Amino acid sequence: MVSQVSYVLSDNVENLSLGTSGALSGAGNALANKIVGNPGVNVLDGRGGADTLTGGGGNDTFVFHAGETQGDQVVDFTGAGAAVGDALAFYGFGSGAKLSQIGTTDSYTITADAAHGGASETFQLVGVTNFDLLTGTNHNDVMLFA
């Protein structure tokens, strides 16, 4: 499916590519989706399933929600410009959420605090270097990568 506007995949559709170069959002469904952004600034949200998210050339945001436990893969962190980059956004994990690296790989797990059901989401960042420090608060934090 190629869309020229922001789009949410309907049931039983697995792939979404955002066309044009404008700032668009793309969201998946419960299936294992492949969502590809465009050269603009995109917000990509897999929404369940083991999703593969590819942003493109813009400063994109990849969204993760508590309770999505299939494991997502973010394929790029290119961003536009030296002082800016792509971002990860985590929602519903609570103030005691923890982000943990799995071994020496590019795989990470974010785990919600007990008050939010202890849900966890595992995701993989492919080709990321200099991923040194993450600092969060008890609000909906966005993690930026340059």
General description of the model:
This protein is mainly β. It has a single domain (2-144), classed as Serralysin-like metalloprotease, C-terminal (Alkaline Protease, subunit P, domain 1). Helices cover 0% and strands 35% of the residues. The chain is built from no helices and 14 strands. The chain has strands at residues 2-3, 7-8, 15-18, 25-27, 34-36, 43-45, 52-54, 61-65, 72-74, 87-91, 98-101, 107-111, 120-125, 142-144. The strands form 2 sheets. An 8-stranded mixed β-sheet has the order 1-3-5-7-9-13-12-11, with no helix packed on it. A 6-stranded mixed β-sheet has the order 2-4-6-8-10-14, with no helix packed on it. It is globular and about 40 Å long. The termini are far apart.
Features:
Alkaline Protease, subunit P, domain 1; six-stranded mixed sheet; 0% helix; 146 residues; eight-stranded mixed sheet; mainly beta
Short description:
The chain has 146 residues and is mainly β. The chain contains no helices and 14 strands. It has an eight-stranded mixed β-sheet with strand order 1-3-5-7-9-13-12-11, with no helix packed on it. It has a six-stranded mixed β-sheet with strand order 2-4-6-8-10-14, with no helix packed on it.
Annotation field: number of helices: 0
What overall form do the CA principal axes indicate?
globular
Let me know the largest β-sheet: 8 strands, mixed
Strand order of the largest sheet: 1-3-5-7-9-13-12-11
- Overall mean confidence score, pLDDT: 73
Supply the helix-strand structural class.
Answer: mainly beta
Instruction: Please trace the helix and strand order, writing H or E for each element.
Output: EEEEEEEEEEEEEE
CATH architectural type: 2 Solenoid
Which blocks of ≥5 consecutive residues have pLDDT under 50? 130-137
Q: At the first level of CATH, what is the class?
A: Mainly Beta
Strand content: 25-35%
CATH T-level fold name = Alkaline Protease, subunit P, domain 1
